[in-house]
């Protein structure tokens, strides 16, 4: 289970939406970049972003859904075969 301190160090809460059945929490990483999954080179050169449904958890009488805004970056290593990677 993710600890509160770990979560607060890593993510900013962007939005909280309440519906009749759910609480939708959208968070975004505090990091400006990420390490390439193939070569490990750091990149802060953004390509695109998308929203991932990360976690579904029952809370009191509502279902809570955590969404993470995930970003893709261009790898800065010209020899790396992974042109674009996700954080
Ligand atoms: Zn790379």
Write up what this structure looks like.
It is a single chain. This protein is 8% helix and 57% strand. The chain is mainly beta. Strands 1, 2, 5, 6 and 7 form a 5-stranded mixed beta sheet that branches. A two-stranded antiparallel ribbon has the order 3-4. The radius of gyration is 16 Å and the shape is elongated. The mean pLDDT is 91. Residues 36, 38-39, 41, 75, 77, 80, 82 line the site of zinc ion.
Provide keyphrases for this structure.
single chain, 87 residues, mainly beta, two-stranded antiparallel sheet, 7 strands, 57% strand, binds zinc ion
Task: Describe the structure in brief.
By secondary structure, the protein is mainly beta.
Radius of gyration: 16 Å
- The count of domains is 1
How many strands, which pairing sense, and closed or not: the largest β-sheet?
5 strands, mixed
Low-confidence stretches: none
Write the H/E string, N to C: HEEEEEEE
Number of strands: 7
> Can you tell me the overall shape?
elongated
Ligands in the model, by name, code or SMILES, are: zinc ion
Work out the helix count.
1
Q: Kindly state the mean pLDDT as a whole number?
A: 91
Helix content: under 10%
* Share of β-strand residues: over 45%
As an assembly, this protein is single chain
Structural class designation: mainly beta
- N- to C-terminal separation? 20 Å
């Amino acid at each position: 289970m993710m600890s509160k301190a770990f979560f607060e160090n890593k993510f900013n809460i962007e939005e909280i939406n309440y519906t009749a059945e759910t609480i939708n929490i959208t968070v975004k990483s505090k990091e400006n970049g990420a390490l390439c999954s193939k070569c490990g080179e750091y990149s802060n050169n953004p390509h695109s972003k998308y929203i991932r449904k990360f976690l579904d958890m029952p809370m009191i009488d509502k279902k809570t859904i955590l969404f993470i805004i995930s970003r893709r970056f261009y790898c800065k290593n010209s020899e790396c075969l992974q042109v674009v990677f996700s954080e």
